[in-house]
Design goal:
about 0% strand; HLH_DNA-bd_sf; about 60 residues; Spo0E-like_sf; Spo0E-like; 2 helices; Aspartyl-phosphate phosphatase Spo0E family protein; mainly alpha; about 90% helix
Length: about 60
């Protein structure tokens, strides 16, 4: 399922961001890049889950 793959990417990116922040600092370019990537993945996940719910509503 698409959301399972997306959830895994979210978790991996979150872990990398936290590790980068702890090792390099929270204002480090890589940490910020990972934070922005995580934001994009979260937006994508929210879009897909919202549309899935809306698609189910249309079946009634």
């Amino acid at each position: 399922m698409m959301s399972d793959t997306l959830l895994r990417k979210l978790e991996i990116t979150r872990e990398k961001m936290i590790q980068s922040g702890l090792e390099k600092g929270f204002l480090n370019d890589e940490t910020i890049r990972l934070s922005e990537k995580l934001d994009q993945l979260l937006n994508l996940y929210q879009f897909h889950t919202t549309n899935d719910v809306n698609d189910y509503d249309k079946l009634d």
